[in-house]
Design brief:
Order of helices and strands: EHHEHEHEHHEHEHEHEHHH
Radius of gyration: 17 Å
Largest sheet: 8 strands, parallel, barrel
Number of strands: 8
Strand content: 5-15%
Helix content: 40-55%
Number of helices: 12
Distance between the termini: 10 Å
Oligomer: single chain
Structural class: alpha/beta
Bound molecules: zinc ion
Shape: globular
Length: 301
């Protein structure tokens, strides 16, 4: 069993902000390669109106394809009940709802206030969804490009509201404002409020602190991480947002520390190659990919 659980969000977070579309067949081959590398949870798309984000127009097809891959938990994002119903119909195993703690970002991203969005997720949770997990992700939890500072109390209040009816709650540094001290403080604060329902850290590497923040979260007891291959990603409605924490570097860090991820680094690099070939024009990041495996390296046993 892995010690940490990594959810690859590249096919959703990575592609939604890309300037080029990844053809559906290439997307499927990439998702299959991610699964072959050992990723047991993949966020394959988002059920938003295709007019808003054309890269997500084939999400239903990506979801139903991904459900044919054995042992993979297929995640989709939904911003409202309509998106949730589409996710259920497509066969998603888990649906994640972004609830922004920043009022301005919330209105730009989902055209609802944070309070209205919490009520929307409550409505979805009340809708029959046998066997499907619901995650409430508190986005812009560490700061916002529009609003600036996001008060911790706002994050705690939203997380506590979501914990009433969601299976799990995540904290997201949507625009890469967090630092390790802040990560420790806020994860601790939210955990003291909602306990084990606090599950994942969704971190962006916008200012290069992605790994440091992931390590801080790990040391606070977090065992679920979202990351994106090649550090691609970003919210199209949050100016300045870019790059999730890089999957390859995150896996390398944990494995080098002796923390099992269940992911094979060679196969992960093969998946990265597929991704780059599918949209070569997009910037791709990652130190592990540049430098390779250090001499004498041993993956976690
Ligand atoms: Zn993100």
């Amino acid at each position: 069993m892995p010690h940490v659980h990594i959810c690859e969000v590249g096919p959703r977070d990575g592609l939604q902000n890309a300037h080029h579309l990844m053809p559906t067949e290439a997307k499927k081959a990439w998702i299959a390669a991610l699964a072959a590398a050992g990723l047991r949870e993949i966020e394959v798309g988002s059920f938003v109106p295709p007019k808003l984000i054309p890269a997500m127009a084939d999400t239903a097809e990506s979801v139903s394809f991904a459900t044919t891959l054995p042992g993979v938990k297929v995640v989709a994002l939904a911003p409202n009940l309509k998106g949730f119903q589409r996710a259920l119909q497509a066969g998603a195993h888990k649906v994640t709802f972004p609830v922004s703690a920043s009022r301005l970002h919330s209105e730009a991203n989902v055209r609802m206030t944070p309070e209205q969005m919490v009520e929307e997720v409550r409505k979805c949770a009340a809708h029959p969804h046998p066997g499907v997990e619901i995650e409430g992700a508190v986005s812009t939890a560490f700061g916002c490009t529009m609003q600036g500072v996001v008060p911790e109390d706002d994050v705690v209040r939203i997380a506590a509201a979501l914990a009433e009816f969601c299976d799990c709650v995540a904290l997201a540094d949507t625009v890469g404002y967090a630092n390790p001290a802040q990560i420790r403080k806020l994860f601790r604060k939210v955990k003291s409020e909602i306990g084990g329902k606090l599950e994942a850290a969704h971190l962006h590497n916008t200012r290069g602190l992605g790994l440091a923040n992931a390590l801080a979260a790990y040391e606070e007891g977090v065992r679920h991480f979202d990351s994106s291959m090649g550090g691609r990603g970003g919210c199209p409605f949050a100016p300045g947002a870019s790059g999730n924490v890089i999957t390859e570097d995150l896996v390398f860090m944990f494995e080098a520390m002796g923390v099992r991820t269940g992911i094979d680094l060679d196969k992960l690099m093969a998946a990265r190659k597929l991704m780059v070939e599918a949209i070569p024009q997009e910037p791709t990041y990652g130190h592990f990919a540049l430098a390779g495996v250090p001499k004498g390296f041993r993956a976690a046993a």
